[in-house]
User: What shape does this take?
Amino acid sequence: MSSTPEFQHTLGKAAGFSGTSLHTGEKVSLKLQPAPADHGIKFKRKDLADEPTIDAKIDNLKTVERATTIGDGSVRVHTVEHILSALSAMGVDNAIVEMDANEPPIGDGSAQPYVDVIKRAGVTPQEAPRKFLDVREPMYVESKTGALLVLLPDESFRISCTQAGPNNRFTQFLSTEITPAVFEREIAPARTFVYYEDVRALMDKNLIKGGSLENAVVVRGDAVLGKEPLRFEDEFVRHKILDIIGDLALVGRRIRGHVVAVKPGHAANAELARALAREQTRRSALEVPRAMPRGDGGLNTDEVMQILPHRYPFLMVDRIVDFEGDNKVTGVKLVSINEPFFQGHFPGHPVMPGVMLVEAMAQVASVLLFKLSKTSSRIGYFMSADGVKFRKPVFPGDTIFIHAELTKARGNRLAKAKCHCVVNDAVVSEGELMFTFLEK
Ligand SMILES: [Zn+2]
Assistant: This one.
């Protein structure tokens, strides 16, 4: 379906279907909507006031008991792993998943209904390049329950999985590359399975009102109970792979690596997703934009000075080279021996004062805040700086790339930004800054 895998993809048009939610047993309608590049996957609760959205990101992970739940504030979406698995494996990078309940329809317990709705909507390329996360060295997570996930470098996304039930019943192994065609044929039809010992208690507690042999295979002793016979001899390991894809989709980037999983579960999957997200954050800190301003992505000195009130010798931003979404910005400061502070800091041994680096971070963060509030009639005042670290000295001739990410904005009054400065691929300083705004 996707002929240009190097570009991001969204849906060709909206499409949806209705069904039963597993936990409440109530009817729920789901509708997939196209979304712009760099949007990612977001869930929208159409049944709540203001129709809040939740980013399908590992930072929003709430619980991993039996199914994967994400949330923001008090809003929750349960059992997101099957729809996320289908979207990710079928090559959809950007979409809105609208629902009128807190859970997608469970369908037959597989990802088949989601693949069907994605195919009805169509998958269409966008102009922005796809974001990958290349595994560069082996990493692993291990849980007390015996789950082990190892991630190895690979040119494609592969999963090799070993599944084993209680007393090693139903031990199954499958190794496959994950492509849309493989997913649709080999993985998507595999249904959820539960052990009878586990469901009896859940049914008694009314936890799975919508659960029935319509949407799960029940394993009782050596017997397999279901509406229809097993779809694959090794259907269980295939469903485990389905869940791994869905949980790792919370990383928000396409993984190029080989997942080797032994007795995986949502908790271990989520832990690997977290480790990957941390690795991505670490790498982003080292990535420096080499190019100077391009197109609409940057601001030249003049434009910076229209936003910031600072002037010589206190303007610490030469240019803005990149905006990423609404909450990230990168500025550049070329450090010259002619900077006034080098005269006294220190004679014969010029080193840029750390406080000037904090000032540079504050100014770059301010540019972002003013761009967001679309006004320059106010001045941002620095309230606090937390976790400030100076890791390396900055010398004349250095080019500083100043990164700021808005982490909190409370109304128009208060904002927090995580910042770091990079010289020659190394972080030289970092800190979290808080601002308040006052009219000029
Ligand atoms: Zn599942």
Summary: DSSP finds eight helices and 25 strands in the chain. Residues 290-295 have pLDDT under 50 and may be disordered. Helices lie at 81-89, 112-121, 180-187, 196-204, 235-248, 266-286, 301-307, 354-373.
